[in-house]
């Protein structure tokens, strides 16, 4: 089935999210939609899937105009969509989730799942999914849950499959498996729309690449185009994708975590017996698929978790049991993973947000009163230093783009001498150009002698910044390996293998490859 979008425009009031976009997806083709967060990719696909009505333009299937009043219309026409956040009921089985919205019943009204189970097994066998129809979804790895979402679309005879940022929650191995599945689907004549901002993956799997920036198509590119060329199309200027940084020269270890555990409200250990240290002048990058204890680890360090055991020491002082305000006063800079919820006050000005951690201290305050002129002068200096794109220092922080909001948080946290700097998901939702800038600031803080911990689900970022890399799985530390460790080893660790096991597995694989080559 050939899919065409002609002149698709979607407006939300005065905001133009999609501006006269043309797109063609041929049968048997992976058509990648590449662009930064906020570029309009997901909005466009939500129009295609019937979740939004286009303000202007047409959708055509095999040359015939169609109108979708909701996802059920899109599915009936042969379009399926796998959302970034899965639409599954965790306590239901695979078969029950697949049957939702398409239920068949036996005489008497009982749900008949046998046909669904049979179809799941047929699709699973055909594409090598290895999915058990009777498995409970919450017991499945994330990568298998994603396959369930794909099965949901295929069982409804989808001929065009939309995958919205599908690798965001996957390990490297699961990502490679998904790319292989996409190729299997296209070899079967299906069209795949792959929405992503990850250049390496887009180049690896695409037949055609369309780049969107600020709601407009900037052009099409071949998969053979360099990452530099694609990045320039995404952001509108040339961008350096490698830092070329100097090696770290670590000093003494001044930050130490010993046997740290954090319990959730139901008594489950979400962080389980972690021990590690960070020296002055080095970056420890914490890797892992989202949801493996990273959030709770950073919150425990910042005094934001209640059920914490073990020890967290900074410059010899115990932080466990200390209030967050005192931890900040101890010289800890913290960039939280959700800037809009925990990093900024959207209804405060940029200038006010830049002093949230020092608003009641000299030189920004005298007694109980803030000094507006000093706050304004500080804001002007930081806006220039960090290239924060804002109409003025008085603009509300909530009106800034995601990348510029992140620069405000980073500028504030790096505006004073630090004993420890923690950045969780430091470039989430940030354009390629801003990523380059923020990475350089993190490196500069390391080079100033500060112990730095970054937490990121982006493996490229972990490899770019980490002098050492710690991998979490299920709240446990799988090991700490040197920066530059192979993606394969890190991927195995992210899937639950210890560092020793992963390194041994890679060594054995290399030995087998060498022997095979010799033969």
From TrEMBL:
Membrane topology qualifier: Peripheral membrane protein
MF terms (GO), sorted A to Z: ATP binding; ATP hydrolysis activity
UniProt keyword Hydrolase present: no
Keywords of this entry: ATP-binding, Cell membrane, Membrane, Nucleotide-binding, Repeat, Translocase, Transport
The protein, known as: ABC transporter ATP-binding protein
Highest taxon, organism lineage: Bacteria
Cell location: Cell membrane
SUPFAM superfamilies: P-loop containing nucleoside triphosphate hydrolases
GO cellular component terms attached to this protein's record: plasma membrane
Keyword Ion transport carried by entry: no
Residues annotated as domain ABC transporter: 3-239, 255-499
Organism of this sequence: Arthrobacter zhangbolii
């Amino acid at each position: 089935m050939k899919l065409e979008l002609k002149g698709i425009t979607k407006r939300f009031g005065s905001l133009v999210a999609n501006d006269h976009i043309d797109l063609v997806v041929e049968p048997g083709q992976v058509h990648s939609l590449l662009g930064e967060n906020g570029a309009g990719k997901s909005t466009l696909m939500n129009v295609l899937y019937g979740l939004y009505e286009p303000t202007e333009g047409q959708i055509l299937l095999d040359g015939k105009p169609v109108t979708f009043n909701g996802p059920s219309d899109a599915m009936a026409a042969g379009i399926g969509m796998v959302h970034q956040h899965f639409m599954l009921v965790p306590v239901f089985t695979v078969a029950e989730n697949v049957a939702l919205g398409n239920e068949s019943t036996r005489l008497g009204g009982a749900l008949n799942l046998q046909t669904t189970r049979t179809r799941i097994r047929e699709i699973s066998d055909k594409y090598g999914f290895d999915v058990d129809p009777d498995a409970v979804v919450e017991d499945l790895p994330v990568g298998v849950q994603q396959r369930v979402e794909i099965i949901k679309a295929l069982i409804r005879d989808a001929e065009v499959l939309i995958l919205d940022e599908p690798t965001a929650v996957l390990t490297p191995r699961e990502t490679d498996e998904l790319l292989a599945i996409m190729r299997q689907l296209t070899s079967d004549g299906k069209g795949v729309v792959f929405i992503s901002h990850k250049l390496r993956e887009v180049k690896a799997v695409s037949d055609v690449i369309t780049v969107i920036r600020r709601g407009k198509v900037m052009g099409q590119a071949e998969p053979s185009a360099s990452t530099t060329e694609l990045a320039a199309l995404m952001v509108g200027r040339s961008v350096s994708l490698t830092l070329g940084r100097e090696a770290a020269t670590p000093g003494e270890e001044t930050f130490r975590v010993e046997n740290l555990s954090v319990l959730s409200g139901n008594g489950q250990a979400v962080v389980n017996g972690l021990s590690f240290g960070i020296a002055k002048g080095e970056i420890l990058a914490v890797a892992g698929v989202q949801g493996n204890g990273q959030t709770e680890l950073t919150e425990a360090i910042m005094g934001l978790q209640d059920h914490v055991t073990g020890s967290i020491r900074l410059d010899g002082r115990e932080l466990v049991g200390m209030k967050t305000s005192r931890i900040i006063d101890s010289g800890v800079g913290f960039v939280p993973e959700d800037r809009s919820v925990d990093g900024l006050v959207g209804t405060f000005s940029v200038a006010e947000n830049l002093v949230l951690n020092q608003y009641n201290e000299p030189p920004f305050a005298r007694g109980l009163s803030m000094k507006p002129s000093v706050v304004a002068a500080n804001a002007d200096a930081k806006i220039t230093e960090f290239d924060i794109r804002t109409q003025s220092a008085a603009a509300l922080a909530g009106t800034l783009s995601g990348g510029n909001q992140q620069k405000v948080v980073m500028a504030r946290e790096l505006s004073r001498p630090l004993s420890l700097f923690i950045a969780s998901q430091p470039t989430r939702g940030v354009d390629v150009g801003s990523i380059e800038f923020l990475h350089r600031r993190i490196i500069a803080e390391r080079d100033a002698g500060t112990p730095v911990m970054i937490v990121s689900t982006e493996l490229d970022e972990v490899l770019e910044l980490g002098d050492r890399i710690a991998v979490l799985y299920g709240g446990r530390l799988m090991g700490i390996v040197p920066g530059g460790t192979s993606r394969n080893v890190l991927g195995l660790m992210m899937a639950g293998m210890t560092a020793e096991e992963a390194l041994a597995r890679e060594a054995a694989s290399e030995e087998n490859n060498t022997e095979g080559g010799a033969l």
